[in-house]
Amino acid sequence: MAAYRDYVWKIGNKKKVDRRSNHRELDRFSVNFYVSNFPSFLTARDLWKEFEGYGKLVDVYIARKVSKLGKRFVFIRYANVIEERKLEARLQMMCIGNFHLFVWQDSTEIIQQKLITWRSKEKM
After folding, report:
1. In what residue span(s) does the RRM domain sit (predicted)?
2. Is residue 98 included in any domain, yes or no?
3. Does some domain include residue 83?
4. How would you classify the pairing of strands 72-79 and 99-100?
5. What is d(CA 75, CA 62) in angstroms, rounded to the nearest whole number?
6. 50, 62, 76, 121: least buried by Cβ within 10 Å?
7. Domains held by the chain: number
């Protein structure tokens, strides 16, 4: 008879799965926008419904902080955007009620794009 130590117990057929989120992959294919001057009573779900008609909306985040002017602001993220400037122009024309939204592409995105183009020109 074999001793207890000779047996290898295997329960289930579980493979190791990479449980990290896909934020890095999403960052490569998405565009972030900063939005302010919207009604304070709106929730993230309400904003989602307003913005989803302009492309594949991935994320809506209402910041707890307020801007220097004392207004709330939102970060929205779209995936698979081909022409970022056209989307930004369309979003800048958007109004909710009597509020004309102020929309800018997130500055970190713009800085990263400039660095990429600068590095590619440097290599040439």
Report:
1. 31-80
2. yes
3. yes
4. unpaired
5. 7
6. 121
7. 1
What are the Cα distances from residue 88, in Å, to 59, 78, 109? Answer: 16, 11, 13
What's the Rg (C-alpha) of the chain?
23
Q: Which domain holds residue 81?
A: 26-115
Let me know if residue 79 belongs to a domain.
yes
Residue identified by tokens 């294919």 is 29
Task: Judge if pTM exceeds 0.85.
Answer: no
Per the DSSP assignment, residues forming a β-bridge with 100 are: 95
| pLDDT tens, residue by residue, 17-50 | 455 556 566 666 788 899 999 888 999 999 999 9
**Ordered DSSP codes for 66-78:** E-TTS-EEEEEEE
Q: What length does the chain have? A: 124
CATH code for the domain in which residue 60 is found: 3.30.70.330
pLDDT, tens only, 100-111: 999 988 766 555
C-alpha span between 99 and 95 (Å, rounded): 6
In a domain, 2, yes or no: no
